[in-house]
Records
---
Amino acid sequence: MIALRRSIKYWISMRPASHRPAPDHFLRRLLAIGFVAAALIVLWQALASLQAWLPWQDAAPRTVTPRGDLAADEKATIELFEKSRGSVVYISTAQLVQDVWTRNVFAVPRGTGSGFVWDDAGHVVTNYHVIAGASQATVKLADGRDYKAVLVGASPSHDIAVLRIAVAFRRPPPVPIGTSGDLRIGQKVFAIGNPFGLDWTLTTGIISALDRSLPAEDGGATIDHLIQTDAAINPGNSGGPLLDSAGRLIGINTAIYSPSGASAGIGFAVPVDTVMRVVPELIRTGRYVRPAVGIGADEQVNRQLAAQTGMAGVYVLEVEPGSSAAQAGLKAWRIGPDGLVPGDVIVEVEGRKVDSLSDLLARMDDFRVGDTVTLRLRRDNETREARVTLQPGI
């Protein structure tokens, strides 16, 4: 091995200088350049950090850039909120619970919602589901005052409830009343409420659709004629007002459609025309009496008969003696010795189609007790019309 090494060294020493390996000058230059670049980066970072500690850094504050005047629609929205805010209230509910060991009764917070001042007598309108199941409710005004509320009346089928508070002085202004029969899709709307407990929140949007229907949460009657809007409505907005661009009440925010439980751009409001029919009745009598014609019907039986006969409508299963339906000559379906004996089927009310019992109830809500309406009836493949005067229903 030693002899081999000596032979290699002798062979290298005997080669010409031009054939010997040259030093790697390129690699050395590359390493030098990299070292200088790294040093410059470290120095730059050090200078940037040093600037924050220099005394002259805080000597000259930034100049505010003039904004200019607000846009016309911004001014209108601000004015609408400032005028309407005082009419909106924050509602918190509680449920009385008794301790099984001590027999002491205490209040457990149950939920929150919104509402609005209806009149100068202290009536506050909200959703029925906001106060359903609660033992007590507290109404907070926009100026911070709290009042215990009493329940005046409720209509679960319309998801409307009326509370009353005793305000001795500086009464909040009632919300201006508008109409909903002339609303148009695309019209701008404003919602004020208390979503997730964030009080007096304003959201805006448009009317997305009209005359929607939603089944009640408890499986009760369908809520009809609803306004659909994309204004952000979240839990806590329920019972708050939906306003038009003039600041008038056009609906009560009542529900949302969302898989997550938060706003998905599909919200619903009870139209103010329905509110105007229901709320005065609740204030006067404590309950809403639906107009009726004096017939008996059942939704499940109605579906079975419609499937069997192939004819949609409301099948009259009973005619109350002395009722408007009896006076108009309506005939009920019955079971005879030979099977089912056909009676009348209500297919239209004042020219509007009726396919189910919920449709009929919705059509009745468009009128008042004492109004006279025209019913289109089908019996034994024949069509006729009957004029009936609406009477108090259930």
---
Amino acid sequence: MAVEQEKRMAVEAGAAARLADALRRFFDGDIWYSFTRSPVIIVSAVITALFVVSAVFAPLVAPHNPFDLASIDLLDSFIPPVWLADGDPRFLLGTDDQGRGILSTIIYGARISLGVGFASVLFAMVLGIALGLISGYFGGTVDAVIMRIADVQLTFPAILIALLIDGLARAVLPRDFHGEVWFYVLVLAIGLSFWVQYARTVRGSAMVERNKEYVQAARVIGIPPVLIMLRHVLPNVMGPVLVIATINLAIAVITEATLSFLGVGVPLTSPSLGTLIRVGNDFLFSGEWWITIFPGAALAILVLAVNLLGDWLRDALNPKLR
């Protein structure tokens, strides 16, 4: 027992030492230096983190729960922001047509929008990386087929691809299931419209890496192609993939908002940023401007912050662009 405990303590101490060494190298590296020297990027990171934390802990952060019908009163509809004449201190940014607080719906809406964005980007990244590795590593007919499919998809705007997939899913699935599977349909629709960027990027890097000596040595000693791609090729192509994923997160959030605004995304009962803008648009010219202005501003700020982080990450990971 004493020997096993000593071994376990030694393993834990070694892991802690490696973690401390990795953190020290990160904080001494160029990426952290570049981050701390850019006030714009620091502000963008803080804004993005604020949105993410608020979305994750929405039940604790939001003043009200827009999904709790017992706490919603139609008599509270169309209350203006608190700084206007008829404002109510309970609703800092006013209420919508259902009596839901705009601030709370923005927080919960960001939760839905970011959830769809992260899931769709993860799906697109996994699919694109897998197809890119297969295409770049094996080449030949497999490469030609995958890249021709990618070329065909690139001729259509991403929003049209998403609309087509969403429409097909709604036509195939029974109407009773639409309210239950909308999240997965959105993730599938948006993810399938973004995989090409990852596939083409990974393919180009994989074609370069497959001819290097360490890959050829792995082939000689009999390592299976799948392990070669995952252990040796994939780690060397993750830099550009992370940059694309960061930028695509902002595009995915905008795509979800666009689909929801068009009425084919998130149901009206689920307040995403797109549905809030759509609902508020009906009352924009009747004086209730806050219903659409505040969710629209929140969407613009979130997308701008994420885009700035993506641009910085691209420059930080590419020494030629510094």
---
Amino acid sequence: MNLLPKGLWPVMITPFKTNNQIDIDGLERLTNMYLDAGSNGMFTNCLSSEMYQLTTEERLLLTSSVVKFCQDKVPVVATGTFNRGGATNTDFIKKIYDTGINAVILITSMLVEPDESDDVLKSRLEEIMSETGNIPLGVYECPVPYKRLLSTDMLKWMASTGRFVYHKDTSCNSISLERKSAAVKGTNFGLYNADTATALDSLESGARGISPISANYYPEPYSYLLNEFFTNGRTEKLNQLHAILTMMDRVTHTFYPFSAKLFLQNRGLKIETNSRIPTDMLTNLDTIRFNALMDSFKVISEMYDIKSVL
């Protein structure tokens, strides 16, 4: 299995038209925005993509469209498990891999119940591997339907199979990330951290990249942070940028993913704010916070000479 590149892997949102159908033109503009901002890979058909609100056909359309728009410039991964197990999962894994993606992502909490052991999870993974040939696989500790974090022993076993190339980690814990990175060190099983606050810690521990939802608002400073880290290491200047991004990250989780679409629209990207996830109206206080988020983005762009792609 090929080693996936280091860097920024956005967990892509899905633009919808005003009638809530997938906006393919908007998706192309969004994909180009991620590419122009320096993204090194794309994770589509994920939680940020509203994957649970899409039909099977829409998941395949979304994924194949992203592959087409990326034009082999960066690799693409996408979720392939939406059931507890069996033939339904393996059939869809094959279908979504045929869209041209580089790896199919398995949702840990979709494969086992909360009270089922790692032995059961391992058994389900072995079943999937035996039924999917040599398709490269990844795992995602998706918080929906519940968060199922992986143990270091489980990660070490996955790495030993040679089938796994991507792990999106949501532990949000520097010590856990350090242990997990050590478990897969020297293999093609790359760890990509979902959390902004622990981003630099995880990179120091050996993570290959990051996939924070805030990169759906402003991917440019994240690309800058990663490029600077891989070039010069963890400098005081980088610590300062990371501290600001960590504070900004507290706002981006509100009304998400509607808020990310609104933010990008305000930045000039031609997409609608429609979401299939019910969203309350922003209060006056929420509006003030989102305006402050935009101001903060502009400030750090000027401070660090980060070019905006919109």
---
Amino acid sequence: MISLDSLGTSPPGFRSGFVALIGRPNVGKSTLLNHLVGEKVAITSPVAQTTRNRLRGILTTPTAQLVFVDTPGIHKPHHLLGERLVQSARGAIGEVDVVVLLVDGSELAGRGDGFIVELLRNCRVPVHVALNKHDLVPEGKAWALEASYRDLVASVIGSRGGGDDGANDGANDGGVDEGDGPTQGDGPGDRAARSWPLHPISALSGAGTEELLAAVAADLPLGPHLYPADAVSDQPEQLLLAELIREQVLTHTREEIPHSVAVSIDRIVDDGPRTAILATVLVERSSQKGILIGKGGSMLKEIGSGARLQMVKLIDGPVYLELFVKVVPNWRRNPARLAELGYRGD
């Protein structure tokens, strides 16, 4: 429970609220969250669907407090777990003050992006489109790539009816450099797209993120601090610890293990000089258990070593970590098991 006294006094004109990071799997939402917050609050890996929970990262500036909600990538689900992940991401859209749609700006807009834009068609809060991986865009290609997303947005929100086309005639376009290509027109489609400003950024290097932050913060409602100014996350410690272990599994394994693994923190004992953590890694098949353990337990030791290094930073002290591997057939399709692991889709 956060006490009102711990929040301090917010200056006049202070803004605060929740910001959903929405997008396809593996477009860099967690990387962006960690960069904005300045600390690791979400795990990252090259594996799609890395994020499974709605993780919150908190950034407090002198003029605003932004609570970012990192959501699972929106994709076509193939099992109950996938359905709940997508349900969780979609549910976040109606519970925040601003939406940031993160796309892979180094590629042309695709069907997956179109599906999410359509999903946001009737969104009642401001939407900002962040064109991530801008550092990977070849010279001279930026305008064409940005235009594909501008046209996609215009094709959807420009057809909503009502007065949308002229609602933002005086707004800027979110900082997109128009010098890379032909001069933009000012037709209905261009005006519609500008109501969802585009921001070229790089979550990896941080390029463009300050401009994105300023634009998003300006769209937050006036309000007090929601969390203490030094907070970076409100996630339970057990969830963060479990995610650090799962990150190492994703980093060190291949085959089908990444999507078939879950982690349960069984016990945390703080005995003074160090924190002892006992955890179980769940897989669906015996063959996956063998891969995770490795010859002579080598793989499990490597996973544990990597996770322990991250846990030391989180807990700020020595950590003893003991890992077990358990086979639970079809846990991704078992409603009761998913609920135990915290995958409820809400």
